[in-house]
């Protein structure tokens, strides 16, 4: 045993997690260590206290650093601690401390762990106990990481809710009152606006009642993976963890990635021209990577666009893609007018039905406004802070109320889509020049309009490689937000699709829809006859021969074909009776003002609500007579 006089520097430490644990308070540690020093006849030089600091590697502990300096200065020669973990829990740090003690002819004495480094055995025990302590920390850290990973994967993000999101319980969900702001930021940046330009726009408009929008704010939003549904934990550490698809995204991954690519360019001077029609829509058939775009300009000033894969050396001309999808591209554009006028508002009000959610959010914002007022009354907010917070909430409430009013105004129904689609088609047939003046075709659109149309409706265009190593279009995938409700409406009989059919010796495209009950079809035809002299007849489809037989199709322009029976509920099908709505080429609208056929749709008329005029009564009787004859034939066959 070394008989040198021991001059003790008592080191006591408590971390945040130790505060409530019995026996680890600073006064308790000091009391017990003074008693030990008195028992062992140690002279106490000083008490060194670190409060609220853990023993993790890298943490700055001022009192401990002071103790080491005093040992160097020979003011004391023995570190006295309650337990080894008060000093360190790292094997790496422990080795440095042991070397420091050896270099300075100093010692370590632990009250609870019975460690005394004045001999070799004491040093060995100190190292073993430190190893056990570090193992415990690492195991606890692993358990914490596993629990955290599970929480993040279920949408519980351990950060403050970013703009565009809110918490429902512990889960991060889109915030109806602010999510459109995020979408707008990404769209503005994608279109070529710089961070500063977007910030200036938001300042001028006082978005969310704020005038303190900065380019750095916009940049942070655009760089945040959360908006594409992903989350990065420990982003500023050496080993961050990436979690995919943990929350509902506000923007597509493709749009997010495209915005990151654009950052490499000078965003303050760069302006996207939207010159590539199929940007981000094409993947290489070999490696599945998104194709890049390039353009060449000839001496005559014409530009030619290509899409290519650098790795697989495959290219495809933009004109080739257009020609391969031209059989339905005009249908998409025609469809766009109906979608914007009727379908999207109907999806918004009927399918997504945000009215209740908006009302709930207005209530939440009003409660928030009440809390702000109470905080001001209680002196928590200054008048300036109160006015700023109040303005933000009141602006949000106004925007939500405007959206609620839109929901109240829009009263579209699936039957309205059926009518609108048929009216548009009939107008094309009966008034081709007027229709053309009011509606552009794909060829007449600008490149920007074409690109926007593709962006809004198409998710991806799948390509395949031919034996000649050329790329061809194999399949088109439409956006889920449009395709799903459209398919649901088609299955219910309220929307049409075009398909090829043989009429005489001519192959043509006709408009087909699914089965609708008799009363729905009758009402539909009656509404059309408010505008036009539409007629209808029966056709037969033979399943075995896959042939549709039309009788007397000459001079008739078929508007729509639909099954008269719900064939999906029939066990065996050999043939199916179809109803066919048509107009004649020479017909015109029966309205006095023909312009109204382009601007309105006929109302739903219920004969029980008021007395019909003679002409209307005869129309209804004729429809009902014809349909009763069809029903009678069908019933006889059953």
* Poorly predicted runs of 5 or more residues: 19-23, 144-148, 266-272, 342-353, 607-612
The first-to-last residue Cα distance is: 111 Å
Query: Into which percentage range does the β-strand content fall?
Result: 15-25%
Work out the number of β strands: 20
Task: Let me know the average pLDDT.
Answer: 77
Shape: elongated
Which structural class fits the helix and strand makeup?
A: alpha+beta
Q: Which value, in Å, is the CA radius of gyration?
A: 38 Å
| Physical arrangement of strands within the biggest beta sheet | 2-1-3-4-5
Helix segment count?
19
The largest β sheet comes out as: 5 strands, mixed
Helix percentage: 40-55%
Description:
This protein is an alpha+beta fold and 638 residues long. It contains 19 helices and 20 strands. The strands form seven sheets. The protein has a five-stranded mixed β-sheet with strand order 2-1-3-4-5, sandwiched between helices. Strands 18-17-20-19 form a four-stranded antiparallel β-sheet. The chain is elongated and about 120 Å long. The relative contact order is 0.05. The model is unreliable at 19-23, 144-148, 266-272, 342-353 and 607-612 (pLDDT under 50).
